[in-house]
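Shipment paperwork, digital attachment
Item: protein structure file
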Amino acid sequence: MIFRPKLPCRLWDTWLFPWKGEFHLFYLETTGDQVWDRGGHVVSRDMLHWEERPHVKTRGLAGTWNDSPTFTGMTVEHEGRFYLFAGANPGGVEVVGIYVSDDLDHWREYDGNPVMRPQAPHYRVAPTPGVSNQEVDFRDPCVFRDPVDGMFHAVLCARAGEPGVEGTGAAFAHYRSPDLFRWEAMLPLAVVGDRFYHAEVPDVFCMNGTHYIIFSTMSFPLRIDTPSREAATGSFYLMGGRDFREPYRLPADPLLVGSGGYAGYRLGAYVLRTIPWKDGRLAYHIVNANPPVWGMPKMVCQQADGTLGLGYLPLMEGLETRTVVGSAGDVRLDGAVANFGAWRRDRNGLTGRAGAGAARLTVARGVPDCHISVRITGGTAERAGVCFKIDDREMALLYLDYTRNELYVGAGKLNAPWGLELFPAQDRARRPLKRDVSCNLRVFVRDQHVEAYLDDRWVFTYVLGGDAKADGVGLLVHRGESRFDELRVAAIESLS
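Attachment content:
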């Protein structure tokens, strides 16, 4: 919901390269009916507004090593020169090549491409027909220089060993090089084929003495249930040691960003990667929509036990154009607003009450792109939250469900005079909720895209779907009474 190229171009996987106060966003670009036939390139100083740069020609002529669609890459700098790694799939076996630039705008293909390919005995080098997990996989390099040995290292999505009933062979290949051109195959950093079908777009980094590998995968054909979601698809992580070569382990809840449900076919937020940011680390990802977009950047948050989460980054507030609702005093309670149930206002907040059904209060109209923030105390209500895309009856819903200890996003409609009909959830996230403890719900709505945070920790990234766009903002209470404090709604710039 931050950037998308102008149609008919469409983006897919991205990699962000900070350089001299600017952010260079590279991405797989589809033009017309040619899938991922080049690398897109835009530049920004604030990560909110983007300027187009020349695309990177990454697809070669028929019969060359890169005559297939381009696979996800990475850009690194070495001794004043820039190197863009990208993959291809000649003859059904994935390989990686290099493109070189002196200015980040003009790129030339290295004559010795490809520079990396899967090598036996550590990695599968040929398809195995007749089995479901026959793919070779050797793509999406994460390239970095190790300060300990001074060598360049690459970690890739790969497969170790032959396919079998005991695992898929999904692995993180490890290669090293003295100069970015000559690469030696090493033992895998980790093999995760007992739980995951593949491990795409690995990202390796260190925070406070602990190394991590982030990777992306789907709950198909292997279902992935986590403490927070069922049939999860998205970006997960492993925890390692002080050296990136030490063994890795899977935490209890490994999902960082993504979604659940639909038997693992829901591909929403995907391909999370990171860059250093001030004193910490910034995470970014794509959002699968029609067309796909580059999503809201987030902060990587490290807990005392080393586990990770994603936190709110105030960067998006730079898109705000005006404050629509600054406090509860700006909200009208008279009959001019669409209203079910009963609402009252005091100096500091709003309280909604619904008996057997639901109470909805419209707080703003005519704000299709907005930032909503409100503190909710559950009280006696079964559910309390916000709604948008409001018409007379139907609405998109995002609420805290105190009966199930989860957050829900989906849609519903009010059936006069009291009923609330809930449609199937677009996503659910389990969270411990206490009725007597207030929490802050923060939501960004931009075009069809919605992002939600609970106490400034990421919860949802999803798309309204169809041609639907938000029309206004409301508050919702279902079966009981809840209180809403510190309400604020701000309009933000539309997504061009």
